[in-house]
Amino acid sequence: MKTVLAQLKQYKKDSFLTMGFTTLEVIMEVLLPFITARIIDDGLEQSDLSAIVKYGVLMLVMALVSLISGAMAGKFAASASSGFACNLRESMYIRVQDYSFSNIDRFSTAGLVTRMTTDVTNVQNAFQMIIRIAVRAPLMLVFSMFMCFMINRNLSLVFLAALCFLAVILALIMRRTIGVFREVFDRYDDLNASVQENVTAIRVVKAYVREDYENKKFRKAAEHLYRLFVKAESMLALNNPAMMLVVYGCITAVSWFGAHYIVAGSMSTGDITSLFSYIMSVMMSLMMLSMIFVMVTMSAASVRRISEVLNEKPELHNPDEPVMEVADGRIDFDHVSFAYKHGTGDDTLEDIDLHIRPGETIGIIGGTGCGKSSLVNLISRLYDASEGTVKVGGRDVREYDMEVLRNEVSVVLQKNVLFSGTIIDNLRWGSENASEEECEAACRAACADEFIERLPDKYHTWIERGGTNVSGGQKQRLCIARALLKKPKVLILDDSTSAVDTATDAKIREALRAVIPGTTKIIIAQRVSSVEDADRILVLDDGKINGFDTHEHLLESNEIYRDIYESQTQGGGDFDHAA
After folding, report:
1. Which of 29, 50, 425, 545 has the fewest CB atoms within 10 Å, counting from its CB?
2. What's this model's pTM, rounded to 2 decimal places?
3. What is the largest CA-CA distance in the chain?
């Protein structure tokens, strides 16, 4: 709770103003029954018109003050709760941006979306109730009880007994429901994951006619969520009958004992009238407290889930005095091992000892799961090595400012991503100040200009979210052009030409040699034709270096590379070596 409330920030003032105006509203409302009693006892029963006018005007003024206070409290409560929710979402989003890949791996995308939407909305609603109703209800309860004790101490003991009974009932309900609501929001993640996966892969779903299967999977997740909500709400449903029992029990008891006091002459008609008003105020306060109890019970699970995101510490940090310049594109792996889960003993990469000169073109080839992508992720410090040292430009990557390093190590990831906006907007992710001429030159090098020129709006053509209105090959070429605009010292192409034909692939490689001759280029590929003209080729097998030499030497000395080459050149298609 402390972590979440720290995001209130500039809206603390609005929160305190809400509580202040709510307190004034309650004071006015509590005094109104007392004034009503005076009108009855001193005005009506004594036939004193001046007393009726005096107390009547006072009642109108107090009612007006109560009305204005309530309106102001509502205004500031809305401002504080909405601002609080805005700060929560922004802080969570900023925190996620700081995460390393290993941090992101701990949260599903659907889980993060649920936390920023459903969970934050729950906390927003609960906070608004707390600063408004949770202030109003206890104050109304305390002031009304105080006035009741002033009128008749013995009758007021009925309220104390009712409060103790209700507190026990609410505690039992809350204890049972908090755990259920925690599970409810975890199941929300599963539901959102099902929707996200289905919508993202809708073309595959339709191509394989799997609509019925996906519908059943979604229905299963939705029904599970339904059953959990029914279970939780069934427990909370006991709250209302308990409240009604207390309310009607108090009214009955006060009516019975109050009648005896009036007959005995120890209470006036005005006193019993105001006492009934205070009874209703106490009961309404209890009703409001029960509503808060329900909302807080639901939001407690949301608070926990939000705080998990905010308290997650990024595993990668800049050093105290980071290096702010990368000297060149030299890359050294000094006996590097890497595992996604440290301490498991299940290394993805094992004892990698590799040295690449500046400006070299290095090809990497190997079977699926051999660690190709994991290897290049260490160069731009998307992960840290478990053992050994990765160096770029002669310095340990952990010595650099991460933004400086990643600006000089440009990566075209295996999964190409474009964002909603024009083509030129997407290209300027590589360099936000790039001119149209620079963007066009990068696209020519990536062989993207040939399809862009055929589009009606050319470089100002709108790209849908995720690049759904361009083909896989077009998306790859745009991502390569985007990377070239950074003018990096190291360029990594992680299987980034798999969706283009071999002729275009050859053109792109030739253009890279001409456009960025001094840049170190690392090309991960499944096709031997994509890497055979590289200066040297790295063959990975089960996370280990199996060979590192030129194409000609590997054909002579490396069995895995020779098998891959022969299978592809003899018409067998791309070969995925089985380790």
Report:
1. 50
2. 0.64
3. 120
